[in-house]
Amino acid sequence: MPKLPLLYARLLCVLALGAPFAAPLHAEPAPPPATAFFSRALLADAELSPSGRYLAALSGAAGARDKLMVVDLQENKAQLVAGYDNIDIHQFEWVNDSRLLFNVRDKEASMGGGNSRAGLFAVNRDGTGLRQLASRRAKGAEETRDMLPYHTYLLRQRGAQDADEVYVVNLDYTYADRQQNAELLRLNTVTGKTRSVPRPGRVDSWLLDHAGEPRLATYSSGTRTSIHYLDPASGTWRTLAEYDTQAGDRNAILPLGFGPDGKLYVRSKAGKDTTALYTLDLVTGKLGADPVLVLPGYDFSGKLVEGGGKLLGVSVETDAPAQAWFDKDMAALQQTIDALLPGGANLLSVAARPDAPWVLVQSFSDLQPPVYRLYNRATGKLKPVGNSRDGIDPAAMGRQEPLRYTARDGREIPAMLTLPAGGAKKNLPLVLLVHDWPYSRSNHWGWSAEQQFLATRGYAVLEPDYRGSTGYGQAHFQAGWNQWGLAMQDDLADAARWAIAQGIADPKRICIAGAGYGGYATLIGLAQDPGLYKCGIAWNAVTNPGLLSGRNGDFFRETLEDSKAYAIRDLVGDPGKLAAPLAQAARITQPVLLAHGIDDRYVPFYDSTRFRDALRLTNPAVEWAEYPGEDHAWQQDKTRVDFWSRVDAFLARQIGPGAAPVRP
Question: Which of 90, 306, 409, 571 is the most exposed place for a label (fewest CB within 10 A)?
């Protein structure tokens, strides 16, 4: 383990409190190295204890494992609570003011590796009383006899926090029928004893009420989802709501949590295009007549913010993350802290007890990685906790601009534009960055390693949330169904042409890049629009869409058969009829950088090597990198640093300062 003074210094590093995002007049002449962007965070998470006197945090460093620290805020002393030389502390939660529960993960190994099981551990805030509660190995191993099975997980919900007991989930998955059953256990973190909560049948997920007791159980089977309510008066389960899980049912609901008055808050479209925050009547199972919160043009996807025995507000995201406060004192506190820390977003979290003296503040901007501070309610002063990254100068980072452009068929497409700091803002080399898995949202305002790494090298970065992306309503999502290589692809080309028309992008210096589906779109774009894209970068790319519906290594490998049918039929279309990069390899003549994780469970490594070999038959400008021990989502610092260093060199040769002049 590293010595305590080093971790203590990192955790309590001194930060400037005035104008934290102000930039000096001149940026550093040399851009920060790749290690500054792609090494693990120094401070990954922080959470106040129930009383607010103690702060737990995950502290890391380059070349070291993530450790669990606790700071006594009254005594201003830090304690190393748990840490290992061969594994990382991954997640934690407070059991009570004296004890914590945590799990572990090897962040230097692929998620699919044999060492990926999390286990469960409990420890006192002073480092004593450490006990392993769940195994990290399959049944039958000697050390598992007195432990919970390896598929026991943190519930990730704030419980009562007034005893040594917590609720955890034993998630047993049956591979034969691809069904899971979530057993809720009340676990004593000192003795290891458990008792099971009675279930209404099969359960996927659980929700605790405001007092930290089980109240809702949800189960999805195929295209139907049922929500069951445990009535505190009778102690029996009853069905509260049922709806169609698939095909974008606009009457679907997602329970978020309970207020102290017993109201259930849910997310629902209620027949409209975008989701909003509603209350649900626990007797009738019907939504409230009016939404509690609507975000015009965006789906509500936030969480409840509680503290001091109250429902204080909700987290939200439109163009940027924020918090909407129902509580007037929290709204006033937000204004006070924003005045002390201008120029970015300040997200607040409070302890469970109403008399807690401290508020945890996470501050960030498009130029600044997260910085953690504590605000003292009594003194009105801020106290530094730590920053998530070293070596990042805000003056060298690029500003982000959320925008919308119009596709060729008139659809409005959301996008995020990141421009290099200083200098010219016109006629720039452009990287069109395409997000993986189309049915998700890519654009999140705030500091991002990939975008800022490219911006510090002088590139404009444009990220379209093309049709099919979520977060912008049902119509935008559904417009992408069955549009791989078609309208979704057109949205990307239209983004590049928009940037040219605005004078932002040099039309002769545009490179398209992406992972997974983004890699697929990159390769199809090179084949279909050879005059638009000068080069392409594709990692873990889908090169043979026919495998999407197969049984070995595909995006839907672990889903139910009827859910897979929905995903293929409604979202993707017939994989055998999609435009396939493998079939169009001969049409790709531009320089290409390809990379793949050897242990990728979703896009087979051999499929990528087959495409590489086909491409090299007619294209001499193919670069290749492969990464042992990496799955679809790369975990190792050395992998990310190596790959993005290759990207840096590749772009410099193709569209950057070292690029050969393009003939007119």
Answer: 409
